[in-house]
Every structure is written in C-alpha cells, then in structure tokens.
Write a structure and sequence with these properties.
Strand content: under 5%
Radius of gyration: 20 Å
Distance between the termini: 46 Å
Shape: globular
C-alpha cells in the first residue's frame, strides 16, 4: 500500500468507525478502531498509533472494560506533543472516572481536556469537553450550572455535526425537565430524538429521558412507550447502564399504574442483573418514588 493509499485508508476507517459509534454499534466500532490501529502500526506512524489507541480506548471505556487503558492514556497525555492525542487521552480518562462515579477525578481530567481544546481553538472539542463537564455537574445535582455548560456546548457544536448536537440537546432537555421546565425540556428531547432517528444514530438517551419526563407529568402510557423503546435499544447494543435505568423507570411506571405484578417483575430483573446481593431491593423500590433516587446522567 502506497503512502497516499495508507492515508486514505486511515481516513476511511476512522469515518466508518465514527459512524458505528454514533449508531451505538460499539462492538463494530471497536473492531474498526482496532483495524485503524493495526494499519497505523504497520505504517510505523507514532502519531496515528496514539490517536488510534485513544479512539479504541473510548469504546472500551463505554463498554465497561477500559480500566486497563487508563494508565497508557496517562502516558500519552504526558509524553505526546500532539494536541489531538492529548485532548482525547484526557477526555477518555475523565469519561472513565465519570462512569465509575469518581466525579472529582473526572472533573480534573475534563478540565485538562477543556484547556487543551481552548489552547488550539477547536470549537468541536470545546463543545465535547463542556458537555462532559456539564454531565459531572448534573451528576452532583448542580442543575443551573450544568444547563449553562450545555447551552455553551450547543453554541459551540458545529452545525455540520447534527448527531453530536442532538446528544447535547438531549442532556439539556433532561436537565430542564428535572428543573420543572417541561415545555423547554420536551422540545429539546423530541428534537434530539428526531435527529438521531433521521441519522440512524443511537437513540436510547432521549427515549430514556422522555420516559422520565412523561412519568414526571403523569402520562404513564407515553412513559411506557419510550421506556420500552429505550430498553429494546439498550439490550440490542448490550449497553448495561441504559438497561439498568430503563428497568428502574419501567418498574416505576408499572407501580404508578397499579400493575404491581409487572412492577415487581421489572424490579426483580433489575435486582438479579445489577444488584444480586440485594434481595430486598424489589420490595424497597415498590415502596418509594424511584424518580427521587435516580439521576439518568449520574
């Protein structure tokens, strides 16, 4: 393969992997990023090797098996002079800690990613880092500050990246619903869902958030509709966190609707899969308002 052919193939694999990632096909994206890394190693291109590693690590982190990658990501962050590699390494480490609920550590690396994006004046990177920082604020229930960060992320996100903008709209819509600003929240959530459907992207997040939003205003059939869509999408993608949240919400919807047997079934599935040591959990969840203890972005 010639030098120019190698560059073209690297770009093609990267685009294809990004499309798979946006669509929620994480296993497919991982395989494509592995091919990207193999090609970079065959070319002996140190810069592309680091970038490919960061891309693949991002998928492994989302799949819940990226802990072993954090150490090498730190090494890239310390040794590399490449802005993209450093930004992606910091962002991935922050995301890893976010998923483990270690919010202070996540905030430190999110700040590093934000600073790198700011230095090189890359608005799409700034948008992503601000969205991540907003997620961390939301997880700590700082809703006003989170909304400000989401709004700035949306302002910076390129119009040419509609899927990425839709993910930010979903986050902001959920935050508004939690604040009691349902009209704004529903508008953003439905816009996010329309864009993601149009582009064949991963739509589990707005479906979950619409389920929650409809629970908040007491429209149980609509809540169930979107909860079931979220559960089916999450199970197809084997996305554990979304499956867990969907079971929480569907159990609550059934409980509020008076179908105690169905509610017990959902909560029992939740307990067996995610909290096997907590046999008391189904009965406990039947007795409380689940919406008060769940934060879909935490």
């Amino acid at each position: 393969m010639s030098e120019s052919e190698g560059v073209v193939e690297l770009e093609r694999l990267s685009r294809e992997a990004q499309r798979s990632l946006e669509a929620g096909r994480l296993d497919e994206a991982e395989a494509l990023f592995e091919r990207l890394g193999a090609l970079a190693r065959a070319r002996g291109d140190a810069l592309e090797i680091d970038r490919a590693f960061c891309y693949r690590a991002s998928v492994e982190i989302e799949l819940g098996r990226g802990d072993a990658r954090v150490s090498e990501l730190r090494q890239i962050l310390m040794r590399s002079a490449d802005d993209e590699s450093c930004y992606r390494a910091a962002y991935n480490i922050a995301r890893s800690y976010e998923l483990k609920k270690e919010h202070k550590k996540a905030a430190f690396y999110a700040r590093l990613a934000h600073d790198r994006a700011e230095q090189v004046e890359r608005p799409e990177w700034l948008a992503a880092s601000k969205n991540l920082r907003a997620n961390l604020l939301l997880a700590e229930s700082f809703f006003d500050q989170a909304c400000a960060e989401y709004e700035e992320a949306l302002r910076l996100a390129p119009v040419a990246s509609p899927v990425w903008r839709a993910f930010i709209q979903d986050n902001l819509g959920y935050a508004h619903v939690v604040q009691g600003r349902q009209k704004e929240g529903f508008r953003l959530l439905y816009e996010s869902l329309r864009v993601l459907r149009r582009h064949g992207a991963f739509k589990v997040y707005p479906c979950l958030d619409l389920c929650f939003a409809y629970l908040e205003i007491g429209r149980l059939p609509s809540a169930v509709k979107y909860g079931l869509q979220a559960l089916a999408t999450a199970e197809e993608a084997q996305y554990s966190e979304a499956i867990k949240n969907a079971l929480f919400l569907l159990g609550e919807a059934a409980n509020l609707g008076g179908d105690l047997e169905l509610a017990g079934d959902y909560f029992a599935r939740l307990q067996r899969r995610f909290y096997p040591e907590a046999g008391y959990l189904p009965q406990f969840l039947m007795a409380i308002d689940v919406r008060k203890i769940i934060n879909l972005k935490a």
